[in-house]
């Protein structure tokens, strides 16, 4: 477990790389400051939040829903600054060993007592179907709220990324990994509950098997997940996530400096529950 020190660059050490490639993930404490989290949350909780206007519900296959909002191009609002800031992007690049571009990001919102579960899956389990040839991809989950076992935090099988891609099918509106394969993996790999405080970040490999249970607690469980692909791994076909688009990094201070809390110019949303809300990679959404 590592810690980001505000005002200093996040140095990715050889030990961090070693841990990432051995376990499939690392945790960086306080990647986002309390002020940065409050700014992001404020932009979402505002009655006129343009980002939340693009949210939708997804069936978990067991009678519950998870609310989500998903976008591809990061844009210039405060959530886009999180996607583009150096402490996020540079860390992904150092861990993968290549430059990256923004593949997509989302907020996952599990409300108290009602928020649904996510089935065991690998992100590359379905990104593979988008024409992405190699698992040279990484995701970063940020705790917007405190995330623990009680409210449905992420669970991972440590080292499962070394299994390669597992076959996936559909469970409700979600993609789920072959449960027989998962059961065998559980016999030989440690299952870890990834508990995060506000602002903590989990950097994880796209083949890491992970799941999360329903939120049966009285507390909200919101998370932001930012996903990146290697620039040398451009998908070979058009699909509903971003193909290679140069990522323009910003300084870490850009999150707090950003005044565009509701400006969606340059963003590209995907909402499967709305007709006409999926945009081709060559046609980013225009305001």
From TrEMBL:
Cofactor(s) required, per the database record: Fe cation
Superkingdom per UniProt: Eukaryota
Pfam families given in the database record: PhyH
Gene3D superfamilies given in the database record: q2cbj1_9rhob like domain
Protein name in UniProt: L-proline trans-4-hydroxylase-like
Record gene name: LOC100185132
């Amino acid at each position: 477990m590592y810690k980001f020190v505000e005002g200093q660059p996040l140095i990715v050490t050889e030990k961090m790389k070693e841990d990432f490639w051995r376990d499939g993930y690392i945790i960086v404490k306080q990647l986002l400051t309390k002020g940065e989290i409050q700014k992001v949350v404020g932009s979402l909780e505002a009655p006129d939040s343009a980002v939340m206007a693009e949210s939708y519900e997804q069936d978990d296959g067991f009678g519950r829903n998870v609310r989500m909002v998903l976008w591809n191009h990061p844009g210039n609002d405060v959530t886009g600054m999180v996607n583009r800031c150096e402490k996020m992007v540079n860390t992904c690049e150092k861990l993968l060993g290549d430059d990256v571009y923004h593949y997509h990001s989302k907020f996952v919102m599990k409300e108290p007592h009602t928020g649904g579960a996510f089935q065991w899956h690998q992100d590359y389990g379905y990104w593979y179907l988008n024409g992405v040839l190699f698992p040279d991809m990484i995701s970063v989950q940020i705790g917007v709220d405190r995330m623990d076992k009680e409210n449905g935090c992420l669970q991972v099988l440590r080292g499962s990324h070394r299994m390669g891609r597992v076959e996936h099918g559909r469970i409700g509106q979600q993609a789920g990994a072959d449960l027989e394969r998962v059961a065998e993996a559980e016999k030989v790999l440690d299952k870890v509950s990834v508990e995060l405080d506000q602002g903590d970040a989990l950097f994880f490999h796209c083949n890491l098997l992970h799941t999360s249970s329903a939120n049966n607690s009285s507390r909200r469980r919101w998370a932001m997940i930012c996903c990146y692909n290697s620039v040398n791994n451009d998908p070979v076909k058009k699909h509903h996530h971003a193909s290679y688009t140069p990522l323009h990094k910003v300084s870490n201070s850009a999150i707090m400096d950003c005044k565009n809390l509701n400006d969606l110019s340059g963003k590209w949303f995907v909402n499967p529950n709305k007709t006409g809300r999926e945009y081709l990679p060559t046609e980013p959404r225009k305001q």
